[in-house]
């Protein structure tokens, strides 16, 4: 069964607008962490934001925020004021318990239009 | 401070050959993990090493092996290369104390093409 699901293969957003990238996850471990990464065409996986399962507040990092809805098992990434440089693949990933392994979704390709 | 560094960045190998990929973690990080990313998919976990010991292994054949050195750098070795091994190989670094909260950082990857 898919542990991380990203249902949007591709998204378009107008420059300066906000966009939400969806991510749902499945785990029975009460302790887990959720990550979002950006991957430009160069291949580098760039860390954006992290949310722990016990964190009380939604994580924010600059223009990135994570809309964490634990009961719905969703961890959507919100990018505010999109920029042309935000065009890339975005991956949601989860780490369960004390393990060091990340499980990735299939990714969402975001295109920002001028 | 230097981030995660990987080498080589690009390489082409012939089927049946062997390849070694190298990774240096962020200074102070003792955990290194390897991932394989084929075109159009998310990365798949191959190995994790912490303090020079294997701490996790993904669903990859025995042709894949790795090790971690005393300075915490790591090598990923793949023997008897197949066309299907063509992928981006990513190295990840973290301080990993067993806590879920440790952030994981990736290098720029090594693009392997098997012909």
Structural class of chain A: mainly beta
Helix-strand makeup class of chain B:
mainly beta
The number of helices of chain A is 0
Q: How many DSSP-defined strands of chain B?
A: 11
Which stretches of chain A are low in confidence, meaning pLDDT under 50 for 5 or more residues running?
none
Number of strands of chain A: 12
What proportion of the residues of chain B form beta strands (DSSP E)?
Answer: over 45%
Short description:
Chain A is built from no helices and twelve strands. Helix content of chain A is 0%, strand content 51%. The model of chain B has no long low-confidence stretch (mean pLDDT 93).
Secondary structure blueprint with pairings:
The complex is a heterodimer of chains A (114) and B (115).
Chain A: E1 4-5, E2 10-14, E3 19-21, E4 24-25, E5 32-39, E6 46-52, E7 60-61, E8 64-69, E9 74-79, E10 88-96, E11 103-104, E12 108-113
Parallel strand pairs in A: 2-12
Antiparallel strand pairs in A: 1-4, 3-9, 5-6, 5-10, 7-8, 8-9, 10-11, 10-12
Chain B: E1 5-7, E2 10-13, E3 19-24, E4 31-37, E5 44-50, E6 53-57, E7 64-68, E8 74-78, E9 87-94, E10 105-106, E11 110-114
Parallel strand pairs in B: 2-11
Antiparallel strand pairs in B: 1-3, 3-8, 4-5, 4-9, 5-6, 7-8, 9-10, 9-11
Can you characterise this structure?
The complex is a heterodimer of chains A (114) and B (115). With 114 residues, chain A is mainly β. Helices cover 0% and strands 51% of the residues of chain A. In chain A, strands 2, 5, 6, 10, 11 and 12 form a six-stranded mixed β-sheet that branches. A four-stranded antiparallel β-sheet of chain A has the order 3-9-8-7, with no helix packed on it. Chain A has a two-stranded antiparallel sheet with strand order 1-4. The mean pLDDT of chain A is 94. The model of chain B has no long low-confidence stretch (mean pLDDT 93). Chain B has no helices and eleven strands. In chain B, the strands form two sheets. In chain B, strands 2, 4, 5, 6, 9, 10 and 11 form a seven-stranded mixed β-sheet that branches. In chain B, strands 1-3-8-7 form a four-stranded antiparallel β-sheet, with no helix packed on it. Chain B has 115 residues and is mainly beta. Chain B is globular. Chain B starts with a strand and ends with a strand. At the A-B interface, strand 5, strand 6, strand 10 and strand 11 of A face strand 4, strand 5, strand 9 and strand 10 of B.
């Amino acid at each position: 069964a898919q542990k991380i699901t990203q249902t949007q293969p591709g998204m378009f957003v107008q420059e300066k607008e906000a966009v939400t990238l969806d991510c749902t996850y499945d785990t029975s471990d009460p302790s887990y962490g959720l990550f979002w990464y950006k991957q430009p065409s160069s291949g580098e996986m760039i860390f954006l934001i992290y949310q722990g399962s016990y964190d009380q507040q939604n994580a924010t990092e600059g223009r990135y925020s994570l809309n964490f809805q634990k009961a719905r098992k969703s961890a959507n990434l919100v990018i505010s004021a999109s920029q042309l440089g935000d065009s890339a693949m975005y991956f949601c990933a989860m780490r369960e318990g004390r393990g060091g392994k990340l499980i990735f979704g299939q990714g969402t390709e975001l295109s920002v239009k001028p | 401070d230097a981030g995660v560094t990987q080498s080589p960045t690009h390489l082409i190998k012939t089927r049946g050959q062997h390849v070694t990929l190298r990774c240096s973690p962020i200074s102070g990080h003792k955990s290194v993990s390897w991932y394989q990313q084929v075109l159009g998919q998310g990365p798949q976990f191959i190995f994790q090493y912490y303090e020079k010991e294997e701490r996790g292994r993904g669903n990859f054949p025995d042709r894949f092996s790795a090790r971690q050195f005393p300075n915490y750098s790591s090598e990923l070795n793949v023997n008897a290369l197949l066309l299907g091994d063509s992928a981006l190989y990513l190295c990840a670094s973290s301080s990993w104390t067993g806590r879920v909260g440790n952030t994981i950082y990736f290098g720029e990857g090594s693009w392997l093409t098997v012909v």
